[in-house]
Amino acid sequence: MEKLKGRNNRIAGLAVSLAKPRPTPGYSPSVQCPNDGFGIYSDSYGPEYAHCKDVAWNILGDGLAYEDFSFPIFLLEDENETRVIKQCYQDHNLVQNGSLPTFPLCAMQLFSHMHAVLSTVTCMRRSYIQSTFSINPEIICDPLSDYNVWSLLRPINTSESMASADRVVVAATRLDSRSFFWNVAPGAESAVASFVTQLAAAEALQKVPDVATLPRNVMFVFFQGETFDYIGSSRMVYDMERGKFPVQLDNIDSFVELGQVALRNSLELWMHTDPMSQKNASVRNQVEALLDTVEKSSTGIPTLVLQRPSQSQPLPPSSLQRFLRARNISGVVLTDHSAAFHNHYFESVYDTAENINVSYPKGQSPEEDLNEVTETAKALADVATLLGRTLYQLAGGTNFSDSIQANPQTVTRLLYGFLVRSNNSWFQSFMRHDLRSFLGDGPLQHYIAVSSPTNTTYVVQYALANLTGTVVDLTREQCQDPSKAPSENKDIYEYSWVQGPLDINSTERLPQCVRSTVRLARALSPAFELKQWGSKEYSTWTESRWKDISARIFLIASKELEFITLMVGLGILIFSLVVTYCINAKADVLFMAPREPGSVSY
């Protein structure tokens, strides 16, 4: 690609098809130091850890996705279309017996007009001027944005801030991924495995009998836009600092984050902490207590062995870093890697179900695949069990820790829905009727985009509500407007009228109202609220607007034939002009008006 980039005067565009089988050594178009400069480590704070000096987390990253190409690059996903294009090339463009190919030749035209120019600063400034002074503004780029999904184990009044004495344990993970191509982001290991695990842990913890009486609350957060310099987590911290979020930074007791967890070597799960904040003795003691709790929670889970990296090793790329920039918090990031990622396809088109060993027996129906409990699902269910027990103990629970058990059936259904086929019977049951079109016959893509909420955000929101909420006896009108139900309060709960399960005696579904504490919070970088489009503190990623993206193939003739065609065309033109002139000159003869008939008398 670098060679082609250097010859861009001869390259008009590229059409790329996926390699099958995938490249075995691995491939990652991301950088070796993801989110560099936007985490906790910098040249002024922890310079020995800044820019991944200590650990190159993504050693296979070549940074291709961050390069600037002056020509369009299209991914051909449809195998039939790819086959037609390759056949056209082979039939007309390949060298035959050492001689040059003969005309006509196969050609391809790519249409990909982008409106944005230069950088975020330039395009946002132009868009701002247009929107300020023009009646019909032409916006040329948009900030990457979506919504974080969050919920509390015990409901609170979201119209006001929590009391300063209330304490919350945060369980966090990311929702998004990316690849070299727009909206192609399977993210199996980089995102899906971790948020599926957290969903299963939330379900397991919600079933504990004494959750309503725990001394501390538990908040589950699924951050959007973390791939693009921590958009979701930086926005939540920003809102917490300004009192725009019900939970404040001072309410956070501890922080447990799931990183990449699906590719464990043997039984090991690694607990990463921040060495800089632990220079404070009080924080160090809190972190030690946190790690002891995690290790204690693994008792009785024989498939997990908790490990601690060197105390001098920095945190991997994680949302926890953005919280630590604002306040010293006792936190841990759980991952399947001690240093460099085990994921050899980090943020690439190959980070699919195959990458985390999710497969199904041949010959099964989609419904059988949906309920097939895979080995990967069992392994992630064990991690979810660990997370559930850890959160329970951190929240002050003591009586039911050993009874907390994540359901492998839930994990396998979630993996199938997010990585194989989102349009399945279970996903349809907990989605709203007007959102059912978001579910397709393939996997969901986990790119944050600019039109929000995205499919992934909606599905995670309603999956979490289904797993942790309760079905209440409300009519559709009451569910959509809880003020019509005297016993309900929209400031405390969120209400969703969903399609519900299939009726046993028919093909119709039984709609129902689900009450939960699951809500959405804006995931838009504070840089765009502050109009600091060149910010080094917050993410400033934008996406260009464009016209329709399309391509076509056709045959082109030789230069000689084109010249002959031109000459023949000119000849016909000249001949037609001469004929037209002659006809016009003799028009009075050629088109003489007929005489009027004389009068006749009888």
Automatic annotation (TrEMBL):
Keyword Transmembrane helix among record annotations: yes
Annotated transmembrane regions: 563-583
Keywords for the protein's UniProt record, in alphabetical order: Glycoprotein, Membrane, Notch signaling pathway, Signal, Transmembrane, Transmembrane helix
Membrane topology: Single-pass type I membrane protein
Compartment(s) of residence: Membrane
Pfam families noted in UniProt: Ncstrn_small (PF18266), Nicastrin (PF05450)
Main subcellular localisation: membrane
InterPro entries named in the record: Ncstrn_small (IPR041084), Nicastrin (IPR008710)
SUPFAM superfamilies found in the cross-reference section: Zn-dependent exopeptidases
Domain Nicastrin small lobe: from-to ranges: 2-116
Family membership noted in the UniProt record: Belongs to the nicastrin family.
Record's protein name: Nicastrin
Lineage: Eukaryota, Metazoa, Chordata, Craniata, Vertebrata
